Amino acid sequence: MKLMISAGPTREAIDPVRFITNHSSGKMGYALAEAAVAAGYEVYLVSGPVNLKQPDGLAEFIPVISAADMAKAVKDRFPVMDAFISCAAVADYRPVEISAQKIHKQDGDMILRLERTEDILQSLGQMKAAHQTLIGFAAETEDLRARALSKMERKNLDWIAANTVGVPGRGFQADTNAVTLYARTGEVVDFPLTDKKTLAEQMLQTIFSKKG
Ligand code: CTP
């Protein structure tokens, strides 16, 4: 099985020395990639900038920086994949203009204009063939279930992994996480707080032993 996974944050440049990003460490995506290699899958890891060691045994490692880079890398490869897990915390906005020179401070406030980036997963939801399995993540601070289910619908996903962020031991920088997996079929599977490696193994077993 050919499985592509996206991981980590993206960086959206403001000028040559500054960028906008988020707290994603890439740990969950890398744990999924490692578990998938161990399970014998052909794994393609598309990664934003992270401080993690590249997993052994990948079919391909594709480093990217911005949301636009990630969109291209993922969309180019998706047609030949059996499944895609979108674990990356893709920036939803980027600066309208990237200054070629360092921006120097001036008196008073500064306004930075942002524009939307592509919703990569939503694009893939539109490209998806019947045999392809699409899995998203929903990292939320509130209304976890409702928001996750609406994202699954809007992005045409087969599964969505919902997790709380902003709580110690869960989400972004943590080594542990707790998620609830919702399937398009209506199945709901709770994974209590555990290390991301164990969680990754359990999630892959659930998703790929019973097709969502
Ligand atoms: N995602 C993506 N491209 C984006 C934003 C998000 O592919 N530009 C993917 C993420 O990898 C994740 C899922 O979409 O699998 C959910 O992302 P999230 O940012 O939580 O949801 P949004 O659709 O951005 O919704 P909202 O801004 O309302 O939280």
Describe the structure in your own words.
This protein is an alpha/beta fold. The protein has one domain (2-98, 113-211): 3-Layer(aba) Sandwich (Rossmann fold). It has 5 helices and 12 strands. The strands form 3 sheets. The chain has an 8-stranded mixed sheet, with helices on both faces. A two-stranded antiparallel sheet has the order 2-3. Helix 1 (27-38) packs across helix 5 (196-209). The chain is globular, with a radius of gyration of 17 Å. It binds cytidine-5'-triphosphate. Cytidine-5'-triphosphate binds at residues 67, 86, 88, 90, 92, 117, 119-121, 136-139, 151.
Layout of secondary structure:
Elements: E1 2-7, E2 12-15, E3 18-20, H1 27-38, E4 42-47, E5 60-63, H2 67-77, E6 83-86, E7 93-95, E8 114-116, H3 120-127, E9 133-140, H4 144-154, E10 159-164, E11 176-183, E12 188-195, H5 196-209
Parallel strand pairs: 1-4, 1-6, 4-5, 6-9, 9-10
Antiparallel strand pairs: 2-3, 7-8, 10-11, 11-12
String of helices and strands: EEEHEEHEEEHEHEEEH
Find the CATH topology.
Answer: Rossmann fold
Name the average pLDDT. Answer: 95
CATH-level-4 superfamily name: CoaB-like
How many H/I helices?
Answer: 5
| Largest beta-sheet details | 8 strands, mixed
Query: What's the count of strands?
Result: 12
CATH top level label: Alpha Beta
Question: Could you give the distance between the termini?
Answer: 16 Å
- The amount of beta strand, in percent, is 25-35%
Any idea what the shape is? Answer: globular
Helix content range: 25-40%
Number of domains: 1
CATH architecture: 3-Layer(aba) Sandwich
Instruction: Give unreliable regions as ranges.
Output: none
Structural class: alpha/beta
